[in-house]
C-alpha cells in the first residue's frame, strides 16, 4: 500500500494497493512523478507498520530520473558512487561496486569523464548505473526517455528491459509514451489517484540481441 503527500494535508496519490510481482516490468502512464515531488512524504504500509520511505529507499529502491539528476562536474564513477555513501557497505568496496555498475551499462570508456562531457543517452546510462549500484529490489524509472532523441531513447528502454529479462530486476516504469510502455509485462493506468486499469501487455516489444548489458 503506497500513499504520497505533497505536504501535511494535501493527498497527491490515494492509498493504492498494487501487487507487484518480482522480476517484472510494470509501466504506469501519467503518474505525475508522484514519488519524486519536492517535500513529498511517502510512506509504505509494510505488514501494518508505517515506515518513511527515506529510511529504506537507499537500500531497497533505485531511481532513474527524466532529467538524469547527475552532478555535472563530477565524474561518471563519482556520480555512480553517491548512493553508496548512505549505505551500509564498507567504503573499501565502493570503487569496485561503482565500476561494475558503470561497466554493466557499457560506459567503461567514459568512467573518468565528467557528467557535463556526456551526451544525453550517456547521462541516462550513468543514471541507470547509479540506480543499480546498491542492488535494489525494485527500480523506479521516471520518464527515462523523456529528454532523449528517439534513437537514444530506444537504446535506454532496451537496456532497462534487459535488466529485467537477464538480470531479474523488477522495474516500475513511469511514462507517457505508449510505445515505451509496451516493453513492459503489464500496464497500470491511474486516474484521480486511483487505479483505472491493470492489464497485461498482449504483444510485448522485445529488445534487439546486441544491447550492451553484462
Walk me through this protein's architecture.
This protein has a six-stranded mixed β-sheet. Strands 2-1-4-5 form a four-stranded antiparallel β-sheet, with no helix packed on it. The radius of gyration is 17 Å and the shape is globular. It has six helices and ten strands. The longest helix is centred in the last third of the chain and has 16 residues, at 150-165. It is of the alpha/beta class. Helix 3 crosses helix 4. Helices cover 27% and strands 25% of the residues. The chain has helices at 57-60, 76-85, 94-104, 120-132, 150-165, 178-181; strands at 2-5, 11-16, 25-29, 41-46, 49-52, 61-64, 138-142, 170-175, 186-191, 194-200.
Strand content: 15-25%
Q: Can you write the helix and strand succession as a string?
A: EEEEEHEHHHEHEHEE
Question: Overall mean pLDDT score?
Answer: 78
Could you tell me how far the N terminus lies from the C terminus, measured between alpha carbons in angstroms?
Answer: 34 Å
Largest pleated sheet: 6 strands, mixed
Based on DSSP secondary structure assignment, what is the total number of beta strands? 10
Which stretches of 5+ consecutive residues score pLDDT under 50? Answer: 1-15, 30-44
Number of helices: 6
**How would you write the strand order of the largest sheet?**
6-7-8-3-9-10
Helix content: 25-40%
Classification by helices and strands: alpha/beta
> What is the CA-atom radius of gyration, in angstroms?
17 Å
Shape: globular
